[in-house]
C-alpha cells in the first residue's frame, strides 16, 4: 500500500454492537495504511460508503430491522457502491447462510471473530482488488477520452486539409475565370462605345454584361473563400460600420423580423477591409432571413474579447480581439449540414435560390484577415456565427472615397502592360476610345524598355502576374525611378505578387480587380491623374 489516498484502504464497519469497533480496530493494526469508519445504523451504509470512499465494507449478518444481507443488496443496487467488496461477519458457520450471503452479492464471509492475520489478509486482498478495478476503469475512461480527442483532432485536421485543397483549386479557377470575364466584358463594353449599335443590339449587350457582372460576383466570392482576395485593409471601428448597416439590415430582413444591435461601449478597432466585412455581414443577414422565413429575431453583437475570456475559441492564440456575432432564431442546422456549411457551393436551399458561397466567403475573408470564425447551430434552436478579428491599437483611418462617375477620358499617355492579348486589346480599345494616348506591352520586360526609352508616360496600368524575367513589382520600381510623377495602377484577378503579407496589400499599392468595368477603370485613372497633378 502507498500513502496516496487513491490507494489507501478505507474500511466501513456496520454492526449494531459497539464493541465490534474495538475488535476490528485491534485486528487491523497490521493493515497499513488504512482508515476505519464505524456505524451502528445499517440504513446509513450506502451513504457512508459513498462519503468515505470505502474500498471494503464489513457488515454484521444479524442486526435488528435491517440485516447484513439487506445491506449487501442495497450496496449492490446503487451505482456508486455496486462494486465495493462486502465481507459479511457472522457467528454462524452454516453453509446455507454463507450461500445466501454470496447469492445477494457478498464477496467474502468471516466467522466471528477471525484471527487478525486472516482479517488483514482478507481486507487487503479485497481492497487491493477493488482499487485495481477502479484504476483500470479510470484508465479505460481516460483512454476513451483520449481516443475521442484524437478522433476530433484528426477530423479537424482532415477538414482543414480539405478546405485548403478546395481553396487552392478554387483560387486557380477563379483567377482564370476573371481573365475570361475581362475579355468578354471588355469587348462588350468596347462594342457599346464604338459599335454604333441600334437599341435592340444595345439591349442584348446589356443583358450579356449583366451576366459578366454575375460571374464577377461569383468569382469574387470564390477568391474570398480561397483567401486570394486582395484585401485593402484599414483600421476601422466595427461599431460604426454596424450602426451604418442597421437600416440596411432591417430592409434586408423585412418588416416581420426584429433586429437587435448590442455594441459594447468603447469597442476596440481592428485592421480589416471594410467593404469585404460589409459584404460578409450582409450575407449573414440574408442567410438569417432565409432561415427565419422572414420573421424572428436577428441579434448583432460586438464586444471586446481579452486573452483570458471564456468566449475565446481554442483555435485562436491568446490575445485581444473584437468579436462580432450574428445570431438568428431560425430553424438551425443538423450536425451533418453544420459540418459542411463552409464548403463552397454547398447549400440546402432549393435550386436557384442560393449559390452556397455566403458562408464560404465569410470563412475565407476572416481567415485571411488573421481571425477566426465559429459557427454554432442546432436544429430548431437557431444559428450563431461569431467572427473574431485581431484588435488594433491604431486610430481608425479616413477612407478616401473614389466615386464611380460616367466615363471620362483625357489627353494623357497610358502604358498598358498585359500578357493576355485579348484582355490587352479590349482595354487599349476602351482607353483609346476615351481619348487617351495608349502604349502597350505584352510583359513587364517590354514595358521596362518603353519606360527606359524616354517616353513621356502619365500612368502605367499593369497586370500583376505575368511571365518573363521582370516582375510587375520590379517594373513599378523602374517607373518610380525614371518617371517619379507617373502613377501606377495594378490589375489582377488574383493579386498574388503585389501582396505584402497574407493577402493584405501595402498602403501605397493601387489595385483594380478583374473583371473591371470601364466606368470603374475610368474613375480610378482620373482619380490617380488628379492626384498626380495635385
Automatic annotation (TrEMBL):
Signal peptide: none annotated. Keywords: Phosphoprotein. The keyword Phosphoprotein applies. It catalyses: ATP + protein L-histidine = ADP + protein N-phospho-L-histidine. It is an enzyme of class 2 (transferase). Its EC number is 2.7.13.3. The modification 4-aspartylphosphate is found at residues 60, 463. Residues 172-393 form the Histidine kinase domain. Residues 10-127, 413-529 form the Response regulatory domain. It holds the Pfam family HATPase_c. InterPro entries: CheY-like_superfamily, HATPase_C_sf, HATPase_dom, His_kinase_dom, HisK_dim/P_dom, HisK_dim/P_sf, Sig_transdc_His_kin-like_C, Sig_transdc_resp-reg_receiver. The keyword Membrane does not apply. PANTHER family: SENSOR HISTIDINE KINASE, TWO-COMPONENT SENSOR PPRA. This is histidine kinase. It comes from Massilia norwichensis.
Amino acid at each position: 500500500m502507498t500513502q496516496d489516498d487513491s490507494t489507501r484502504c478505507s474500511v466501513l464497519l456496520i454492526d449494531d454492537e459497539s464493541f465490534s469497533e474495538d475488535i476490528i480496530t485491534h485486528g487491523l493494526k497490521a493493515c497499513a495504511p488504512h482508515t476505519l469508519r464505524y456505524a451502528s445504523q445499517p440504513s446509513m451504509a450506502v451513504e457512508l460508503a459513498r462519503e468515505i470512499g470505502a474500498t471494503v465494507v464489513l457488515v454484521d449478518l444479524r442486526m435488528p430491522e435491517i440485516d447484513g444481507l439487506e445491506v449487501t443488496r442495497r450496496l449492490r443496487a446503487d451505482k456508486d457502491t455496486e462494486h465495493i467488496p462486502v465481507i459479511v461477519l457472522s457467528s454462524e458457520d452454516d453453509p446455507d447462510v454463507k450461500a445466501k450471503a454470496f447469492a445477494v452479492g457478498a464477496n467474502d464471509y468471516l466467522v466471528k471473530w477471525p484471527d487478525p492475520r486472516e482479517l488483514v489478509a482478507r481486507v487487503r486482498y479485497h481492497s487491493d482488488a477493488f482499487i485495481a478495478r477502479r484504476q483500470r476503469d479510470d484508465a479505460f475512461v481516460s483512454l476513451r477520452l483520449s481516443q475521442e480527442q484524437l478522433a476530433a483532432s484528426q477530423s479537424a485536421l482532415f477538414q482543414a486539409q480539405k478546405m485548403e485543397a478546395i481553396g487552392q483549386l478554387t483560387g486557380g479557377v477563379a483567377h482564370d475565370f476573371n481573365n475570361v470575364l475581362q475579355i468578354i466584358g471588355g469587348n462588350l463594353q468596347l462594342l457599346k462605345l464604338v459599335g454604333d449599335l441600334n437599341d435592340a443590339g444595345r439591349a442584348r449587350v446589356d443583358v450579356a454584361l449583366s451576366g459578366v457582372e454575375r460571374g464577377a460576383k461569383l468569382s469574387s466570392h470564390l477568391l474570398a473563400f480561397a483567401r486570394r482576395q486582395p484585401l485593402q485593409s484599414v483600421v476601422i471601428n466595427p461599431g460604426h460600420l454596424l450602426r451604418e448597416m442597421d437600416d440596411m439590415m432591417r430592409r434586408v430582413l423585412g418588416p416581420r423580423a426584429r433586429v437587435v444591435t448590442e455594441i459594447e461601449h468603447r469597442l476596440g478597432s481592428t485592421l480589416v477591409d471594410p467593404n469585404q466585412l460589409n459584404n460578409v455581414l450582409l450575407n449573414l443577414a440574408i442567410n438569417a432571413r432565409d432561415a427565419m422565413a422572414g420573421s424572428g429575431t436577428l441579434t448583432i453583437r460586438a464586444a471586446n474579447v481579452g486573452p483570458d475570456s471564456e468566449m475565446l475559441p481554442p483555435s485562436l492564440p491568446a490575445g485581444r480581439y473584437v468579436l462580432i456575432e450574428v445570431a438568428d432564431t431560425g430553424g438551425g442546422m443538423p450536425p451533418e449540414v453544420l459540418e459542411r456549411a463552409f464548403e463552397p457551393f454547398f447549400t440546402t436551399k432549393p435550386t436557384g435560390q442560393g449559390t452556397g458561397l455566403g458562408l464560404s466567403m465569410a470563412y475565407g475573408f476572416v481567415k485571411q484577415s488573421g481571425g477566426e470564425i465559429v459557427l454554432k447551430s442546432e436544429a430548431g434552436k437557431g444559428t450563431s456565427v461569431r467572427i473574431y478579428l485581431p484588435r488594433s491599437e491604431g486610430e481608425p483611418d479616413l477612407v478616401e472615397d473614389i466615386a464611380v462617375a460616367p466615363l471620362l477620358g483625357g489627353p494623357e499617355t497610358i502604358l498598358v502592360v498585359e500578357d493576355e492579348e485579348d484582355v490587352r486589346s479590349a482595354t487599349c480599345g476602351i482607353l483609346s476610345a476615351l481619348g487617351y494616348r495608349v502604349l502597350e506591352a505584352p510583359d513587364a520586360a517590354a514595358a521596362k524598355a518603353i519606360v527606359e526609352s524616354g517616353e513621356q508616360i502619365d500612368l502605367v496600368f499593369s497586370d500583376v502576374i505575368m511571365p518573363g524575367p521582370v516582375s510587375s513589382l520590379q517594373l513599378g520600381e523602374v517607373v518610380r525611378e525614371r518617371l517619379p510623377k507617373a502613377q501606377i495602377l495594378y490589375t489582377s484577378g488574383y493579386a498574388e505578387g503585389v501582396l505584402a503579407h497574407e493577402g493584405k496589400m501595402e498602403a501605397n499599392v493601387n489595385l483594380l480587380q478583374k473583371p473591371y468595368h470601364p466606368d470603374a477603370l475610368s474613375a480610378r485613372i482620373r482619380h490617380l491623374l488628379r492626384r498626380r497633378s495635385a
